[in-house]
Every structure is written in C-alpha cells, then in structure tokens.
C-alpha cells in the first residue's frame, strides 16, 4: 500500500538539490565496481557532483530569500498584534475613566451577588475600601431586610426581568442612606449570564422632597390657623375684655381671684393662637423691646403640663437683672420651645432622673439663654451636623430634623449665635447668645399721661360683644366711645361728629379695614394719624402686608385693655398736637 507524502515546497527543493547528487555518486560507484566501466563511471560521478553542487548553491540562495520574506512577514504580523493589543488596552483605559467619572454606581453581578466589575461610585455606594475590586458581595453592607429585598430582585433580574427599586444601606461616612437601584439582565446567546446594576444615592433627594412636603404642610397649617385665628381670638377678646372691666370694680377677694383667672386663661388662648400663627407665619418679623425672663416663663407655661406627664423636672434659673433687649418675641418663643422639645425627646429614653434647666443671664453687650438636659448627650461625630436642616438621629416619624436648624436661623437673624456643649453620657447644653442694642432700648415709649380733656374713640368691629366690652372698659376709664359694625358705618359716623381716635378691625364683612383706610386716605387724609388697627392674626399675608404698608399702630386680639388704653391716649395726644399746626 502506498501512502501519499506531501512535503512543503522549501523542503522538496532542499532534497532535490542536496540528495540527488549524492545518489548519482553512489550509482556511479556501483556501476564502476560492478560492470568495470571505470572511465564512464568516473565521468558520470564527476558530472553528478558538478550538477549537485550547482543545484545546492541555487537552493541555498532561494532558501535565504524565503527566510527573509518569512522574517519580514512575522515582524509585520507581530507589530500589528502589538498595535491591536495597545489599542485594546487604551480603549479599556478610556472606558474605565468614563465609568469612574459617572456619578452613579455601575456594577456587574453574578448569580450569587458577587461583583464582577464596578466603578468608583459603586465602591462608595457599597461602602467598600478604595482598593476593593471584584469578588465583593453586594450583601456585605446591607442589613437583613435590605439584603432580602436585593436577593429577591437579583433573582428576578436573572429571570430576564428589569428591576427598579429602592434600598436602604450604609453610606461611605457610616450614616444611613437610601439608594435607587436598576437591575438589567445581560444576555449571551439567549441566556442571562450577568446583571448590570445601576445605583444612585437619593438620600439628599428624599430629604429635599421631605422638605417640600413639610413646607406644604406648614403652608396648609398656616392657611387653616389664619382662617380660624380671627374666630378664636374674637371670643377670647370678649371674655378678656369683660373680665378686665369687672376687675376695675371693687369686688370680694375670691371674686377678684376668679376674674383674674378668667382673664389669664383668655390671654392664654391668645398666646396659643399666636404661637400657632408664629410657626406657620407668612408675614415679617416685628422687633420690640422684650424681657427674656418673661419669654421663658410664658413658653414654659405652654409646655409644662406635657413635661410633667413625662416625669421631666424643669428648673428655671432666671437672671434678676431683667435681661431686656430688642427682638421678635414670637421668634424667641419659637426658638425656646424648639429647644425644650429637643431636650424632652432626648430624655424620653433615659431611665435616670430626667431634668431640664433653663437659665438666663445678661451683660452690657448680650443676653444669654441656656437649656441643659440630663440626656444621653451628643456623639462628637454628629455634633457638627445637628444644626443642618433635616438632620435627625430620631426614628422615622419622630421629629422633622428642622427644630435646631430653625433655632440656628433665628439666632443668626438676631445677630447672635447658638452652640452646644455635650459629651456622650453627660447630657447637652445649648447656649444662645443675642446682642443687646442700648440705643433701641432707650426708644421704648413711656406710658402717656392721661389727657386733661375727654377722649372720644370710634370703634369699628363686626363683633357686637367685643365692641360692648371695649366700650364699657373705656367708659370706666373716662374715655367716651361709639361703636359701629363696618367701614361704611364708620364713614357715616365721621360725617356727623369728630373722634380723636379710630380703632378699626382689619377683617370685617362689608367694607374691610383696608377699604376703610383707603377711603380715609382719599377723602379724609387728616384722620389717618388717628387710626389704630386691631386684628386677631398679624401673620396672614394680606394682614401683614396692610400693617407694613400703613405703618399704623396695631393691637392684637385678645386685647390687654390696659395696653390698648395707653395706645389710645398716645394717639389722642399726638392728634391734639397736630391740630393747632393744621389750623395755622
């Protein structure tokens, strides 16, 4: 059986050039010995040797040329391969730079949740070390509930379903965060072999959304409170007015005590509505000369019962120097109330004696307010964040994270500062320092002396009982009054007689306080200096705008009738001084 043999072209040429001449020599020698043809054999051998040598030389030159061609081809292919590898490495490097530049997390996961590849943002989202690479489990930084959710979503993605969900976890700084995730299946030859995971930290976004929700709630509460404040304060003013009127009489001590209690509770109703309006206010702040001790007493009264039910003992250490300064009393009360609530919430989980100490102090330059609690204290790593909006260490649904940031804003608006001194296990002391303004303190108006002549007052209010209460009180104080129900009736009364002072409610059916003022400004501008506004809601946008625009004295319901009398006498005295000037 003959087997076909195939030799490469170069090999065949070599054998033809090198082996064939040798065979010719062997054959020639054989013929010489066998047949005795010595001369012929010698010639044949010589010819064979010459031919073989020539062919060998020719073959050697051909092989060298072929080797050079082959060497050149190998070098060319090698350079091409090296260039391709360099281009591939460059493309991979650029792709890695692009992936690491993306702020969202990008990772490739296997079925067990191990990371096959990830970018730098994914390392931060997974709270992985900077040098961490593939092989890390996505479940390492998740709590049990979150890990169960991720495992379920990952299994669904390997079934070919795109998954979108949110999951809680630990952020790079150790705080809790929330991430929005997208799992997309990666298919090879129709089979899901990997899952592409995209993640984004939405903690701050959720805080912003929560902030907007809280703002909407505050706005809705402001509208609600503003709507009912007028209706609440009017009856409170009536009760307060009659109580103050009866207190002018000589009554038995027990009756005086009851009347004083009625007046105090009516005033308390007014403070409660004022506090609600202050929390949801839409108007600007009003600075007056305030007594910090008085602010502390009134604010504590609003929270005292609730603190008692929680077995929290509160001690007031008030400065005997009467720390008075120029400030917005509603904002100060809001700040102190927030600090009390913050201390209260810190003490709820404490088993040791629960105590809060409120201190006031004063110097020539500033007044100080301190609120100290015996709670667990504040950890050093979060102390710098406690005044940030929406930062809270409380459970979900307990607090909004706005209380201390509001305190910080109020202190800054007053040109002051707020700080905290605390250590874990030693409680916390919040210190508020606010500057005093001696120049403005001197501007506080002194109570006017009673006028020699009888003062006449026009009272414009749609509440009949409130008009009667005020008229009776003023009558007992030697002031003549006349009451009407709206602005139109007031204009008619002013046509018939002159009044030194006009007290007008802002919100009334028919002609409102604004319309009444505009008619006076147009038809009787000389009476504008005699006008006093009264309202149960100084924080409603329209009321606040009117008060700011008019720049007139304003009294808030329920009235302190003694304070109202002082305002009436001051306006009447000013009107009397202007009358001779107008006549001249």
Overview of the molecule:
The chain has 584 residues and is an alpha/beta fold. The protein has helices spanning 9-35, 38-101, 120-125, 144-158, 203-247, 253-279, 292-309, 329-347, 380-383, 403-413, 438-441, 464-476, 487-496, 513-523, 541-550, 561-583; strands at residues 105-109, 115-118, 163-170, 176-188, 191-201, 288-291, 313-317, 324-327, 355-362, 366-373, 417-422, 428-435, 455-460, 479-484, 501-505, 531-535, 554-556. Strands 2-1-5-4-3 form a 5-stranded antiparallel beta sheet. Strands 7-9-10-12-11 form a 5-stranded mixed beta sheet. Helix 12 (464-476) links the parallel strand 13 (455-460) and strand 14. It is elongated, with a radius of gyration of 48 Å.
Mean pLDDT: 78
Span between termini:
151 Å
Low-confidence spans: pLDDT under 50, at least 5 residues? 1-20, 34-41, 438-452
Chain oligomer state: single chain
- Report the β-strand fraction as a percent range: 15-25%
Which radius of gyration do the C-alpha atoms yield? 48 Å
- Determine the structural class based on helices, strands and strand pairing: alpha/beta
Number of E-state strands: 17
Q: What does the main sheet amount to? A: 5 strands, antiparallel
Number of helices: 16
Binned, the helix content reads: 40-55%
How is the largest sheet built, in terms of strand order?
2-1-5-4-3
Shape: elongated
């Amino acid at each position: 059986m003959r087997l076909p043999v195939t030799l490469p072209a170069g090999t065949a040429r070599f054998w033809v050039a090198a082996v064939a001449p040798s065979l010719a020599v062997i054959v020639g020698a054989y013929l010489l010995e066998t047949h005795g043809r010595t001369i012929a054999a010698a010639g044949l051998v010589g010819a064979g040797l010459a031919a073989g040598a020539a062919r060998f030389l020719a073959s050697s030159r051909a092989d060298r040329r072929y080797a050079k061609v082959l060497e050149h081809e190998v070098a060319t292919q090698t350079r091409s391969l090296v260039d391709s590898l360099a281009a591939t490495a460059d493309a991979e490097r650029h792709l890695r730079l692009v992936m690491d530049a993306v702020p969202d997390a990008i990772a490739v996961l296997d079925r067990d949740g191990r990371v096959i590849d990830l970018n730098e943002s994914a390392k931060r989202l997974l709270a992985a070390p900077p040098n961490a690479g593939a092989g890390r489990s996505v479940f390492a930084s998740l709590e049990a509930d979150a890990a169960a959710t991720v495992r379920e979503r990952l299994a669904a993605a390997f079934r070919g379903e795109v998954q979108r969900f949110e999951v809680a976890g630990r952020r790079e700084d150790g705080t809790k965060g929330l991430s929005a995730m997208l799992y997309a299946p990666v298919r090879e030859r129709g089979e899901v072999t990997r899952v592409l995971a995209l993640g984004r930290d939405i903690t701050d976004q959720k805080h912003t959304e929560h902030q907007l929700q809280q703002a909407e709630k505050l706005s809705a509460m402001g509208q609600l409170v503003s709507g009912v404040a007028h209706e609440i304060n009017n009856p409170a003013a009536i009760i307060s007015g009659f109580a103050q009127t009866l207190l002018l009489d000589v009554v038995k001590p027990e009756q005086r005590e009851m009347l004083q209690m009625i007046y105090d509770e009516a005033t308390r109703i007014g403070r409660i509505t004022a506090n609600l309006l202050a929390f949801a206010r839409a108007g600007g702040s009003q600075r007056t000369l305030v007594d910090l001790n008085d602010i502390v007493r009134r604010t504590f009264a609003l929270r005292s019962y609730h603190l008692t039910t929680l077995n929290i003992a509160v001690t007031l250490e008030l400065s005997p120097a009467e720390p008075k300064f120029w400030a917005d009393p509603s904002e100060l009360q809001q700040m102190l109330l927030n600090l009390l609530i913050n201390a209260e919430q810190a003490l709820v989980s404490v088993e040791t004696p629960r105590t809060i100490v409120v201190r006031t102090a004063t110097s020539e330059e500033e007044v100080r307010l301190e609120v100290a609690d015996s709670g667990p204290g504040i950890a050093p790593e979060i102390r710098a964040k406690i005044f940030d909006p929406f930062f809270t260490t409380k459970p979900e649904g307990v607090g909004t994270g706005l209380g201390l940031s509001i305190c910080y804003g109020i202190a800054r608006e007053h040109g002051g500062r707020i700080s905290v001194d605390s250590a874990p296990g030693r409680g916390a002391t919040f210190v508020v320092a606010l500057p005093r303004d001696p120049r403005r303190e001197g501007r506080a108006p002194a109570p006017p002396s009673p006028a020699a002549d009888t003062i006449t007052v026009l009272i414009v209010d749609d509440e009949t009982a409130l008009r009667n209460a005020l008229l009776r009180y003023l009558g007992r104080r030697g002031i003549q009054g006349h009451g009407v129900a709206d602005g139109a009736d007031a204009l008619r009364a002013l046509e018939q007689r002159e009044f030194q002072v006009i007290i007008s409610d802002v919100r009334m059916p028919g002609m409102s306080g604004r319309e009444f003022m505009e008619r006076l400004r147009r038809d009787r501008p000389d009476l504008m200096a005699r006008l006093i506004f009264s309202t149960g809601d100084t924080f409603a946008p329209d009321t606040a705008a009117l008060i700011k625009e008019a720049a007139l004295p304003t009294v808030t319901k329920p009235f302190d009738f003694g304070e109202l009398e002082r305002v009436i006498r001051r306006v009447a005295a000013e009107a009397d001084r202007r009358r001779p000037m107008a006549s001249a």
